[in-house]
Amino acid sequence: MRSPEVKKFIEERGYLFWYTPAPKGEKVTDELLVETILNYGSMDDIRGLFSVMGEKKVAEIFFEVTNRSERCRGNYHEVVLNYFTLLFHRYGYAS
Q: Distance between CA atoms of 73 and 65, rounded to whole angstroms?
């Protein structure tokens, strides 16, 4: 069950999830939410994501996806993958 804050966060950024039918709050997985916001969101979107989910949870989801085999790594842009890997390592969220 998703928290109301996360649902509201997704609904407010529905333009990033244009391919998902409404209501988006329940349809978007945590993995897709993190990937989409980190890849395509603004810095305000990223700060908002950290606020509603917590930096540690975002880092856990990020590393869960990126530590998979090469075929299942997700769709992170190379620059985004590098930046957030360094950021999360710097602040001790590395798995």
A: 6
